[in-house]
Amino acid sequence: MEHFKHLPEPFRIRVIEPVARTTRAYREQAIVQAGLNPFLLDSRDVFIDLLTDSGTGAVTQDMQAAMLRGDEAYSGSRSYYALADTVKEIFGYAYTIPTHQGRGAEQIYIPVLIRKREREKGLDRSKMVVFSNYFFDTTQGHSQLNGAAVCNVHTQAAFDTGVKHDFKGNFDLDKLEQGIVQAGAQNVPYIVCTITCNSAGGQPVSLANLRAVYAVAQKYDIPVVMDSARFAENAYFIRQREAECRDWSIEKITYECYRHADILAMSAKKDAMVPMGGLLCFKDETVADVYQDCRTLCVAQEGFPTYGGLEGGAMERLAVGLRDGMREDWLAYRINQVEYLVNGLEAAGVVCQQPGGHAAFVDAGKLLPHIPPGQFPAQALACALYREAGIRAVEIGSLLLGRNPKTGGQLPCPAELLRLTVPRATYTQTHMDFIIEAFARVRERAADIKGLAFTYEPPVLRHFTARFREAV
Ligand code: F0G
């Protein structure tokens, strides 16, 4: 069927969750009650929910069936071994700890790696720095809670929506190495490779870049953690764009990528397609000591290490989801759906980051140039979109970035983006067309959209619970 211009969804839909349409007057009241913050809207008031692709997508028939095989034994469960064996086959990693979600893995490996560096290399906590192409919020949060300064060493082009590049998620290797030398390698307890790079718009990291990062890390004896939420989408992009891998399977690319890291931390709610779940895995005996320390901490924080944060059925479902999420026809469909949305928005005059894996990132700064960053143009756009069509999207800009903890001033943000995150196999092409039409309508009245001012600003992680009024 390759000769067809548009291939439809490679699946049938057999479960229905009804959603209600609402009136503009109803939505007006709802968004005001939510303090002009879409996070505070009730799900029943949302027509199309693009807040996240995390745990919000459809699951496959085989995943659902696998749930019934669950062995709920407290220790040494058969379902644990089903999951650990799958991890070994796909990623080549010897040791597995299941966690309740991605941040469950972070709360374990981060303090363990810091203590190990302290013990073995004399890390000075007052000089501790960790590096990433871009830390996801919770990875940044756990690093900071443990006293580390975070440094994102992304490429210059990463946040420039005017520039196209095959691998906008790549590390800037010079900045990485310079940063390590400056901090003193002993003060760098880990490097995190985020694939795909969520914050830059689901942009991929190349295999060549992963190899080069690992070479730098090995030179300075620093462990590399693969933050793996969207590992399959990253492999798909590598297959499309990196000459060496053009004829490789997704499986082969994935295996090769993970040779260039030591630890796998995963929010399994994305590419592994489960509503809840995570993984913390270790490559081989070189990190066996880290695995042991993580097992100990896991008992206190998540659960006994052979179930961690998951019930037996959920471990079986995850083992199947890891494989189902790597199907090439499925990945092609998913990436094409996001591209369709981005192209439609661009055709309607809405500037976006080049299409990434899981979301369209609209450049709200360009759409609403009359709203300064301090009045959160992307949050204002989110409210306008909800009022227009009941669509919920999420700000990725100054509001999310927050303040400098030392000075209290707003941190300068590289771009004011609105993320339209596409849940897996949940919305159809008609939904994409509806979103594009909603944007075209919002754009017509863009000049009338007002910036926002806080009526309540929490001290940390403010974007989740802040409340606003329109700025005058
Ligand atoms: N790492 C990345 C790259 C992520 O995107 C996320 C979550 C996490 C770690 C944390 O995992 O939520 O399972 O605890 N991202 C979601 C999002 C929330 O909307 O992008 P978690």
Automatic annotation (TrEMBL):
Give the metabolic or biological pathway.
Amino-acid degradation; L-tryptophan degradation via pyruvate pathway; indole and pyruvate from L-tryptophan: step 1/1
Q: Which Gene3D superfamilies match?
A: Aspartate Aminotransferase, domain 1, Type I PLP-dependent aspartate aminotransferase-like (Major domain)
Class in the EC hierarchy, top level: lyase
Q: What residue stretches are annotated with the Aromatic amino acid beta-eliminating lyase/threonine aldolase domain?
A: 49-436
Q: Which residues carry this modification: N6-(pyridoxal phosphate)lysine?
A: 270
Which GO terms of the molecular function aspect are on file?
Answer: tryptophanase activity
Q: Which metal ions or organic cofactors does this protein require, according to UniProt?
A: pyridoxal 5'-phosphate
Under which EC number(s) is this enzyme classified? 4.1.99.1
The family database entries (InterPro entries) matched by this protein are listed as: ArAA_b-elim_lyase/Thr_aldolase (IPR001597), Beta-eliminating_lyase (IPR011166), PyrdxlP-dep_Trfase (IPR015424), PyrdxlP-dep_Trfase_major (IPR015421), PyrdxlP-dep_Trfase_small (IPR015422), TNase (IPR013440)
UniProt KW keywords:
Lyase, Pyridoxal phosphate, Tryptophan catabolism
Q: Its family?
A: Belongs to the beta-eliminating lyase family.
Q: How does it assemble?
A: Homotetramer.
This protein's name: Tryptophanase
Q: Which organism is it from?
A: Neisseria leonii
